[in-house]
Design brief:
Layout lengths: L6 E2 L2 E2 L4 H17 L9 E5 L4 H14 L2 E6 L12 H15 L4 E5 L5 H14 L3 E6 L5 E3 L6 E3 L9 E7 L4 E7 L4 H11 L2 H12 L3 E11 L14 H20 L5 E6 L14 H14 L6 H13 L12 E3 L7 H10 L8 H4 L2 H10 L27
Parallel strand pairs: 3-4, 3-6, 4-5, 6-11, 11-12, 12-13
Antiparallel strand pairs: 1-2, 7-8, 9-10
The structure holds 1,4-dihydronicotinamide adenine dinucleotide (NAI).
Length: 399
């Protein structure tokens, strides 16, 4: 069948197998162009490995340092006339490419929040690799069932304390509108922290530690975001920001366990980028469209793979100490937060409208990036050719 994008709100419900493979290949080529990552990890567990920052972390370590990787994610296989989710196709392509290079790559597809998934990961690592020396925690999920209480928590993206009014972008209709979001209740705040905070990260580390599969000197990382004042009410000071604060506190807790063994836990504050997770946040897509414009003009634009390359090549595996801020966070948002970048964004922000969207922002770039997440708009793919969503080489590896 000919597969075309079917966008519903902030999600695309179709994905293109060859397009997703081309997207992964482009990331692999970028990493290969950088040469070998010296002193990189030997064996890595990547939780949230199929899209966005987690996939880029996996590509950067595997193709930069020859790292053996176990990827955990939650993706749907193709069924009947329905395509698989993009992360499923991405992983099939990644695994195929890694194995062609002689690299170890195995996958666990299921709920990372469950005890069962943690046990499966420990057993797989023990059996195949012995230990891991890098654990990346890159989950973005709207809900989490806590396996110890059985309660399902739903996260929300709301301000805390007071209602928030802002301009926002309806990416489907391409219009700039105003929205007012009512503040979250205490329960909604707690639920969001339960989903996107650090509890599950800690439980992963505990499971790996008690399973005896953490190598001495293991490093673990989770990803956070801060952003500029214009998005503070919905992001850093909102429900998701509370969860990120919890995640950052958890890094200190985990670090206290790993540091005596020569390792460490870090939070890396990354740049705002178009991913499936960020496109669901109100206001943020408008900010990203403006940011892309400003950073491209200044020659500072990066995608997930460029960010993850800087993380591993310039910060984590330099052979020296990892540079961190006053709160022990790695800052990959340094270019986004540069004074000149933020001054340019702040200048555009109050005057953006539906009419001037294409001139003062890079909405075209935003949309292009969004479609690429689902394998559409890749230069080297012929979208006129029939594609079989069910027949993907490497499918059996995405278990
Ligand atoms: P994404 O939506 O591209 O990736 C999410 C990953 O989590 C996928 O691999 C998905 O399969 C996996 N996942 C979700 N629920 C799962 C479950 N129950 N079990 C197993 N796997 C599950 O998201 P993105 O943007 O790469 O986010 C990753 C992290 O980076 C998040 O913590 C996010 O807050 C953070 N971050 C994102 C930024 C952005 O602008 N996109 C900026 C800074 C940090």
């Amino acid at each position: 069948m000919i597969i075309i994008p079917k966008v519903r709100g902030f999600i695309c419900v179709t994905a293109h197998p060859e397009g997703c493979a081309a997207h992964v290949q482009a990331q692999i080529r970028y990493i290969q162009s950088l040469g070998r990552l010296q002193n990189g990890p030997k064996n890595a567990l990547i939780i949230g490995a199929s899209t966005g920052y987690g996939l880029a972390s996996r590509v950067a370590t595997a193709f930069g340092a020859g790292t053996s990787t176990v990827g955990v994610f939650y993706e749907s296989p193709p069924e009947g006339g329905k395509t698989a989710s993009a992360g499923f196709y991405n992983t099939a392509a990644f695994t195929r490419a890694a194995r062609e290079r002689g690299l170890y790559a195995k996958n666990l597809n299921g709920d990372a929040f469950s005890e069962e998934m943690k046990h499966r990961a420990v057993a797989l690592i023990k059996n195949d690799l012995g230990t891991v020396d890098l654990v990346i925690y890159s989950l973005a999920s709207p809900r989490r069932t806590n396996p110890r209480t059985g309660t399902t928590h739903k996260s929300c993206l709301k301000p805390v304390g007071a209602a928030y009014s802002s301009r926002t972008l309806d990416t489907g209709k391409k219009i700039v509108t105003d929205i007012t979001i009512e503040p979250a209740s205490q329960t909604e705040i707690a639920d969001t922290v339960a989903v996107m905070g650090g509890e599950d990260w800690l439980w992963w580390i505990e499971a790996l530690e008690s399973g005896g599969v953490l190598a001495p000197g293991t490093r673990t990382l989770a990803y956070s975001y801060i952003g500029p004042e214009i998005t503070f009410p919905i992001y850093r000071n909102g429900t998701i920001g509370r969860a990120k604060e919890h995640l950052e506190q958890t890094a200190h807790q985990i670090n206290a366990r790993l540091e005596p063994l020569g390792g460490g836990a870090f939070v890396s504050v990354n740049k705002a980028l178009v991913t499936q997770a960020s496109s669901a946040i109100p206001v943020v897509p408008l900010y990203i469209s403006i940011l892309y414009k400003v950073m491209k003009v200044k020659g500072l634009h990066e995608g997930c793979i460029e960010q993850m390359a800087r993380l591993f090549y310039d910060r984590l595996y330099t052979g020296g100490a990892t540079p961190v801020d006053g709160e022990r966070r790695i800052r990959l948002d340094d270019w986004e937060m540069r004074d000149d970048v933020q001054a340019a964004v702040a200048d555009i922000w109050p005057r953006i409208s539906t009419e001037n969207l294409d001139n003062v922002s890079d909405f075209a770039g935003y949309q292009k990036e969004f479609l690429r997440l689902f394998g559409f708009g890749l230069e080297d793919v012929d979208y006129e050719i029939e594609s079989d969503p069910l027949k993907i080489s490497g499918r059996e590896a995405v278990i």
